Each structure stands twice: as structure tokens, then as C-alpha cells.
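INTERNAL AUDIT FORM
Audit reference: QA-55
Scope: verify that the stored structure record matches its stored sequence.
Auditor: D.O.
Record contents follow.
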Amino acid sequence: MSGALVAAAKTKSKEPEIKRAAAMLGIKGEQAKELYKLKLQNTSGQLQKAVEYIKAINPGMNNKEALATYQRRPASLSETVGKYKNKMELLCLQV
């Protein structure tokens, strides 16, 4: 056991190196946080870009209608009923 203590006393302390590395990482970590916050402020997601594009090519369309168009779903209940009514008529004619 005393041999281990003697060996530990002879080895150079790495405390200054560890502190220096932590300081460097801390600075880089803060910079990364700031850059990430800036990135989040200046970007929008794929869905938002698609809705904005659909609204740009279809003037007068609101966000809800543009979202329905993007998702390829009927914008209202009457469109849904009409869609299924037509399918039911086709199925009845085939039978």
C-alpha cells in the first residue's frame, strides 16, 4: 500500500490540465447553446414551409385549408360525405 502512495506522489498532478480542458469545453458549450438558440429562431419545420408554400400558390387560402391540402384530406365534412357517397354508389352498382 505504501508503494502505491509513493507512486501517486511521484506522478504529476493533472488537475491544471483538467481545469483547462473543462474551461475550453465550457466556452464551446456556451457557444453551441447560443448557436442552437439562434438556429431555432431562424428556421421553420417542413410542415410550416409546406403550408406557407401552398398558401403562396393559392392566394386567399388560410392555414387550416392549406394544412388540409398538404395532408390530402377533405377540408370539410360535406367533402368527406360526398367522397364516401360516391364510393358507396360505385360499390352498389358493381353488385
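Auditor finding: record pair retrieved intact. Helices lie at 2-10, 15-42, 46-57, 63-70, 77-94.
Action required: none
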